[in-house]
Fold each of these.
Amino acid sequence: METPSYSHLTSEDYNHVYEPSEDSFLLLDALEDELLFLRNKKPLICLEIGPGSGIIVSALAKYLDYQSHGFFAVDINKYACDATLRTSKANSVNVQIINMDLLSSFKPNSIDLLVCNPPYVPTFTNNLDSVCDIPEQTKLYDEEAESVYNSSKSDKMLIKSWAGGLDGCEIINRIISNLDYILAPNGIFYLLIIKENNPERIMKTLKTMGYESHQIKDRKIRGEHLIVLKITKT
């Protein structure tokens, strides 16, 4: 499964949108390994949460292309929505992009294939909205907080693309807690995480919710151990 073209994106775009990196390419590799399985499953509604540059959902739209399908992407970052639209057009695929927070506009149990490379980096706060309003005391004593405090609004949207809160799990936990609402009865969820997110705890939580999860691919890079989980309803 070839990486979709994204040469149309510029350094200016990457001031506001997460640039494809090792985590993006690992998720692409994992989905390539799953391609035969997914083609046999024929998911009708495919959704990526937080598409960033749009290469993941564009690849799925290209290689799972068949009648009666729908490919969607949702992102709270308007710049990411624009980048995803441009990437889909550059690769001649049809992706519907929605600028919103997670999945508030989708019908219950409507997603057959869910994919997410979430913000997973552990950061100094468990409330990501606070990157827009950091107390002065925190600013003075936390270099990371001070950097965020001094960022522009668009820079803060970029920070939200990787800043995951305490343990890096704020968005991950929100998605998992809503899986029963999101996924179709036979839905599949591919989630990228890192070792610091405590995969064992995540998988234990999923098991108590009635989901089967297992690691299908991992890669160690400098400073991170990336992991892709495949999650299905038992």
Note: The first strand starts at residue 45 and ends at 49.
Amino acid sequence: MLAASTFAAPAQAQVQRSPYGPPITLDQAKRVVAAAEAEARKNNWTVSIAVVDSGCNLVLLHRIDNSNLGGIAVSQDKANSACLYRASTRGAEQALAQGGLNIRLLALRGMVPLEAGIPIVVNGQQIGSIGVSGVQSNEDGLIAQAGADALK
């Protein structure tokens, strides 16, 4: 409970987190990655894209040619963070930027306060999460959102 309340920035305190649902399937994960990759390629961005299921297990990892190697791990970390805390990592990034007691976010196991970890919600249930890394944080976020929206 401390993790959930600590993660909530003042502006996000009213955010409803979706309950965990059945795990995302490989076919669904492929659709998510295809949509995310299309957004990245549209902008000539090279990134790594990770999709985890509702149990935070890696389902699919996709690295666009010539994307930086560090993005492989970071994309997985962002996806796991969104899964563990059932919230976009953008909220943690914004809360940390405010400073003060929000620095506690750094002590939360698996917390990645960088934009582009987004829960994948279908029928009101979180079936997985997507994480993207390789360009600027806000650009990673646009790619991740395109992927998360693929199943809506």
Note: The chain has a mean pLDDT of 93.
Amino acid sequence: MFFKKRDIFLETLILSANNLKAASSLFREEINDLQDVESYAERIKVLEDKGDELTHKIIHALNKTFITPLEREDILGLALKLDDVVDGIEACADRMELYKVTEADDYIKLFVQMIVNCAEEIEIALRLLEQKKVKQMLRHIYRINELENEADQLLRESIQDLFIEYNDPIIIIKKKDIYEMLEGITDACEDVADILEALLMRNS
């Protein structure tokens, strides 16, 4: 792997990771203040739009560049998957507004904290990639995988508890949908980690 002193692809991927981290942090703020869910959903949508712009910037640059610092499919894959994570956050925030959720339960808070942690690990990993500290990246890639596994387990526990705690089918449907959307966001984070790990394996 060879990176120029200033590389548009790595710079923009890091900007996308920064945007993801901002979206996840704002989402965490939202679930602690669901009385203002509409305002938070609008602010998260702004970040989702910014993520789309950054993704389009990378695609446009790929179409104009013959030699790239990483494999083209890796750059494109990272851009699209980072965008998927932000899209997932925005979709979940929108769903919570639609469902008129007024209070986040402990499971929602745990899922969202896992998403925040994943976003932080992704940003660190990409910064290490830019610095060519590829071996140090593995620790952060593995941590994302661990967080996704924890989210899988949390989803099983949360759904099991739903059918114990609630009799109202509407509540069960809404909560189950939100839990599954949140877990799906961690899946998208793991997709980013998988691309980074494959990239490292090919270039080790």
Note: The mean pLDDT is 93.
Amino acid sequence: MPSKIFFPVRLFVLLHTITFLAVGCGRQGKPESVRRYASITGLKTDRLGYYKKLHAQAWPSVLQKIKECHIRNYSIFLKEVNGQHYLFSYFEYTGTDFSADMKRMASDPETQRWWKETDPCQMPLPEAHAKGVIWSDMEEVFHTD
């Protein structure tokens, strides 16, 4: 008698496992968790046109490296406040080791060459300048999907 009950339970578990795996395979590209990052920096007024031109024609190799490092939905916005230009950056990270992915990006020769073009256009905020970086991290205070 127990074997008659045991078989349907095993079949039920097996079918649900197959269904779960099939649904999971269909969800490829949809990570379980996404971390959002935002940052800000200044933009030198005399470099505004060049910076916009660079980003209007972003290098394919740099865009590919961004994807390889698990970054998606990457945007940079521009805002002028009292004659000073600021850049606001936002992206979503879908990987599991942010530090390793950022090191991989930083070691990429094409990305380094890109940064040699963009970095002189930017003007770090005092906090970032003191740390020797260009972009200042921002705190997320609200999010909704």
Note: The CA atoms of residues 43 and 85 lie 5 Å apart.
